Structure formats: C-alpha cells, structure tokens
UniProtKB/TrEMBL annotation:
GO terms for biological process: 'de novo' pyrimidine nucleobase biosynthetic process; 'de novo' UMP biosynthetic process; glutamine metabolic process; L-arginine biosynthetic process. InterPro entries: Anth_synth/Amidotransfase, CarbamoylP_synth_ssu, CarbamoylP_synth_ssu_N, CarbP_synth_ssu_N_sf, Class_I_gatase-like, CPSase_GATase1, GATASE. Pfam families: CPSase_sm_chain, GATase. Its EC number is 6.3.5.5. Residues 1-173 are annotated as: CPSase. The keyword Transmembrane does not apply. CDD domains: GATase1_CPSase. Keywords: Amino-acid biosynthesis, Arginine biosynthesis, ATP-binding, Glutamine amidotransferase, Ligase, Nucleotide-binding, Pyrimidine biosynthesis. This is Carbamoyl phosphate synthase small chain. Pathway: Pyrimidine metabolism; UMP biosynthesis via de novo pathway; (S)-dihydroorotate from bicarbonate: step 1/3; Amino-acid biosynthesis; L-arginine biosynthesis; carbamoyl phosphate from bicarbonate: step 1/1. Residues 4-134 form the Carbamoyl-phosphate synthase small subunit N-terminal domain.
Length: 368
C-alpha cells in the first residue's frame, strides 16, 4: 500500500488522511458533497462551485477522463476535489487528458483514498463545513486556526462572472443573459432555440439591459449567497414589470429576493443529478440536476406577488416560482442538466413561449 501524503482537515478538527493527486497546492474552502454518479467534468467546471471543495460520493472518479467538450467554463475555480478513488488510466473515445493532469494544470489539489461516505454522513449530520486540503506535514491544529481566521469571500459572483458584455448572435428572440457565473450549457440551450443573445455582466444596470430591446431577460446560476448582490436584486425588481424574465438557481433566488421574499442557507444543500421535483400545478415529477446551498423561504412567498410552482420531493423546499401578474418565472434546479437528466429541458421552451406572448401583446397594443 502507498503511504499517505495528503490530508483533509475540517474546521471541527477532523482529519482524513489520503493520497495526493492534481496540484500540490494547499486549499481552503467550504466542503460540500455531490452525489452524481457521472458528470465530474461538468461539476468541477461549474462556476457555482467557485471556492468550494467538492466531495464526490460516487467511489470512482476520473474513469472516462477529461475531454474538450464538456466544460461548463474554461476557467474552473473549485478549490479542491475529494474522492474515494481517482482513476489515472481513463478509457473513453473522447478523453484527451486525465483528471490528475487537468487539475495540475488548473492548480487545483485533489485528495483520494478518503472514506467519502463517512465524510458525507458527517456533513449531513452537522452541515456544510470549512476544510483545508494540505500536505501531511502541516499541523492540523494550525489549519483549524487558519480556517477560524478566514472568512469565505463575499464577492463570489464578481470573481467568476464576465466583466464585459458580448453578443452571441442568432436569428430568434433577443435575450439579454445576465451572467452571474454562467454555466455554458445555459447559453447552449438558448442558442439551440435560435435566440439572439447578448451576455451582460451581473451588475449591468436596468438602462443597459433595456437598451438592448430584449424580448426576454435570463438570469443564470452563480456562486455564493444571493443576498450578496443587492444592486442586481434592485435591477431585477425594475425589470419584472417590463419584460419576460426566466431565472435558474441563483437567478431564481434573485427573482424571489427582488419580489420581497427571503432566502436562507440550507444545512448541506442539494448537489447531484437525481433530485425529484414536483410541479404542483401539473402534478408532474421530474428528476433533476441540482447544485445549490441556499433556498427561497416558502413562508416568505406569502407576502409577495409570486406563487409556488415546484417543490423538492426530498425535503419539501421551494424549487420554482412564477409571478402572478407578469411573465416572470424561475426554477431552483438545473433544466440545462449538464450533467444530469434532461427531464426538465422543456422549461426553456416555456421561456420562449413567454417571449412570444409578450411580443404578440405588444403588437396588439400597437394596432389598438
Ligand atoms: N447553482 C447556483 O446558481 C447556486 C446558487 C447559490 N450559489 C446557492 O448555492 O444556492
């Protein structure tokens, strides 16, 4: 057996010893777990995981390598990876590099040989916790002190969102896509439907957005606490009466906050590819991909113009809302999947239908 050469130390002093892969740097972040059986490439490159150390509960990670096609961003920014077994000899026709190679290039450390089941049970029991991946010669007590002295960053969205606007041209509806740390598969779903997209930074003003004459505005996923971007929330509040809006995950949370609802941090979040969600208007259940640590407070919807449309069948939390008077709606889960099942993909078609309705109404008004 090989000798342990790396450790994962949690903020409560728990030490997991394991084997190094990826970069040999030290990393501190929030430790979360993902239960997907596949999709580690999309997960490690999903900007919503910015700053987090991801534990994979599936026991073998890296077995189909890393390819050119499945990145959700070309600049992955997770802090680290914790796995039971890292596969160094992948087998897949699309594989270009090993997981180990890619993490080394990205300066992201990994640790293998960990009892990820025990770690996950701990997070489930006590909640999401800070952790450090470090070499074995580091004193765990010093690392615990370091964690106590280090606050998690508050500017997470600014760290990963685009700083400048850019067009992704098409011949269909004009969509302004507000980038809060966008997964590229959201853009892919819009362009697949012919949309003429302008991507704008998360802090674009209402004027900057409306100047594009949008048929609809889309708010993406993104990392961190949704209450950390009050300006964006104020902008969304101004947009809701003017134009159809569709939000995913962070976008959903911001629509709720802009409408007067509240958000809170979940004990350990939803991260995986098999979360059952019920549409309470149709009674239809979809198996969905999810990645979030915050949720919209169900009770707080009562004082708003939003109505609940979807709930999680695992824990009963809010999974979707729509506006009672305007063409605004949002989902907490990931209809773009990547990775995950495509059950919920039609949600994008609903956004297209809303834009069509909006345009037809405007035409009627012009002819009235
Ligand atoms: N994927 C997302 O957009 C996540 C939203 C938010 N950062 C959360 O953790 O709840």
């Amino acid at each position: 057996m090989y000798k342990f050469n790396r450790q994962l130390v949690l903020a409560d002093g728990t030490v997991f010893k394991g084997y190094a892969f990826g970069a040999s740097t030290q990393a501190l972040g929030e430790v979360v777990f993902n239960t997907g059986m596949t999709g580690y490439q999309e997960t490690l490159s999903d900007p919503s995981y910015n700053g987090q150390i991801i534990t994979f509960t599936y026991p073998l990670i890296g077995n189909y390598g890393i390819n050119r096609f499945d990145y959700e961003t070309i600049n992955p920014s997770i802090k680290g990876m914790v796995v039971r077994e890292a596969c160094h000899k992948p087998s897949n026709f699309r594989s270009g590099k090993t997981l180990d190679q890619v993490l080394s290039e990205l300066n992201i450390p990994g640790i293998s040989g960990i009892d990820t089941r025990a770690l996950t049970r701990k997070i489930r029991a006590f909640g999401t916790i800070k952790g450090v991946i470090a070499n074995l010669d580091q004193d765990p007590q010093e690392l615990v002190a370091l964690m106590q002295a280090t606050d998690l960053p508050q500017d997470q969205i600014a760290q990963v969102a685009t700083k400048t606007s850019y067009p992704v041209t098409g011949r269909g509806y004009r969509v302004v896509l507000v980038d809060l740390g966008m997964k590229s598969s959201i853009l892919r779903e819009l362009t697949a439907r012919g949309c003429d997209v302008v991507v704008v930074p998360f802090d674009a003003s209402e004027e900057e957005i409306m100047r594009q004459n949008p048929d609809g505005v889309m708010l993406t996923n993104g990392p961190g606490d949704p209450t950390s971007v009050p300006q964006t929330i104020a902008t969304i509040a101004k947009l809701i009466p003017q134009v159809p809006i569709f939000g995913i995950c962070m976008g959903h949370q911001l629509i709720a906050l802009a409408s007067g609802a509240k958000t809170y941090k979940l004990k350990f979040g939803h991260r995986g590819a098999n979360h059952p969600v019920k549409n309470i208007l149709t009674n239809k259940v979809s198996i969905t991909s999810q990645n979030h640590g915050y949720a919209v407070d169900l009770d707080s919807l009562a004082n708003t113009d939003l109505e609940l449309t979807h709930i999680s069948l695992n824990d009963g939390t809010c999974e979707g809302v729509r506006h009672k008077n305007f063409l605004t709606f949002s989902v907490q889960y990931h209809p773009e999947a990547a990775p995950g099942p495509h059950d919920a993909n039609e949600v994008f078609d609903q956004f297209i239908a809303n834009m069509e309705e909006f345009i037809n109404k405007n035409k009627e008004l012009q002819h009235a």
